[in-house]
Amino acid sequence: MNELQGTNVAMVLAGNFEDVEAIDPKKYLEERGAKVTVIGLEMGKIEGKKGGSLDADTTFEKVKVGDFDALIIPGGGAPENLRIHDNAVQFTRDFAESGKPVAAICHGAQLLISADVIRNKTITCVSKIRDDVKNAGANYVDEALVTDGNFITSRVPGDIDVFNKAIADSLAKVAVGDAVGD
Question: Which of 20, 32, 114, 173 has the fewest CB atoms below 10 angstroms from its CB?
Answer without folding.
Answer: 173
